[in-house]
Design brief:
Layout: E1 4-6, H1 7-14, H2 18-27, E2 35-38, E3 41-45, H3 46-59
Antiparallel strand pairs: 1-3, 2-3
């Protein structure tokens, strides 16, 4: 089974605030596969977070 990462940790890894990550969930942005464990606790699959970070890094142009 895939490791799960709590939303605040995912937000830190991405470099955004936790409320922004919550808004992204509503908009269908960010890592997918999240599960709302309780009204205040959301987790993401580690593999999806890593995939999202890799895709984001690949899409970010590098400066010469």
């Amino acid at each position: 089974m895939d490791d799960r990462i709590p939303a605040p940790q995912v937000a830190r890894l991405i470099g955004i605030k936790t409320p922004t990550l919550a808004k992204w969930r509503c908009l269908g942005k960010g890592p997918q596969g999240w599960i709302q464990v309780s009204p205040t606790h959301v987790t993401y699959p580690r593999s999806e977070v890593e995939r999202f970070l890799a895709a984001r890094a690949a899409a970010t142009p590098t400066r010469p």
